[in-house]
Amino acid sequence: MVDSNSLGERLLKDLNAVLKKDPEIDEFDIVPVSDPVINKCPIIHMEHKVALESWCVKHLYMYCYSRLMSWRKGEQKADTELLLQWTQAMLLCNPDLQIAWNVRKEVIAKNKKIENDMKLSSLILSHKPKCLEVYGHRRWLLLKLKPTDQSPLPRNITDSEFSLCQEAASRYPCNYYAWSHRAWVVQHLVKDITQVVLNELQKTEDWVCCHVSDHSGFHYRQFLIGHLCRHLLLVEGIGHSSVKSSPKLLFSEIKGGGCSSHPLICQLLGTEMKLVSNLIQRYPGHETLWYHRRCILSLVAQHQNINLLQPFLKRELHSKSNKCSKKSRIELANELCDRFLCNCESERQFVLDCLQQESNNNWQKYLIKKHTQWLTEILGWFFPVSMQ
Question: Which of 161, 218, 215, 216 is nearest to 186 (CA)?
Fold first, then answer.
């Protein structure tokens, strides 16, 4: 019978050798193998992937954990390299162990080497994509990478973080931690908010269309839209903002080099309303889509009720032509309203279309009923629609 400590030490040595041998390893997993095979290494390595056979995990973990606790109590001495090896093995086996992350933070605070932990946390997320401690550690690392409070991170780092979050969301349904981390990156690490948000809306559109029951993805889009609206109103005010290389999906119809902030908001909300309308009609019976629609309607109602529409219409009308007749100005104003914003009548027509399309779908009819109640109670829209 092999001594547990000797086995754990050998497993740690073999694991470190594999990770050093192949710096391009991008995926980790634990495969279910209940019993060991004689003269066979339980560490599987192929095609830049690494895995542990499940029977050896407890031996590796307990060996590293006992050594780390002995070091914390002052019963054993260990250099920085050994601490990193112990904590790396422990976190691959159990990434929820906060003490191991704290030890690595202490080491990084001294030697300033962040790249290894960025790679390790990414590797762990390939195995356990919904782990709060991993995202918390990555935020700490990203803030360490950020030069100053005013300077943003390089674009390639934030793009890599967005891709990592999307992959984690694809691996684990309703991965709120991944989407929240993605939102945190937008809030704290980017400077060109308008450009980044538009790109993110474009990148996530296909994803939400393929995951119509995943509320976390739609919640992220709600955050993006609200964040951009606040940015346009508070930072750019009533001026003009140029959108360089903006995704053609959102603003291809707006002509000229610059656009008023308020028309951008209206165009953004109108585009999202069109997307969610199409999804509700294509995939009836998904409550997530109705919740998302209500959020967008709330934003639309806010921008209508606080009289933001009239100032932007005046500027838009004035910029079109000073020679427009009064009638043509009114027609243009109506065109802009119909083009960018919805109203009670258009929402009523949409609800009737959904009822006719799914007349035998009791669950869809229930969702429509809840939606009309919300429109009446929250937005104050009179909505006489029969559910029969």
Answer: 161
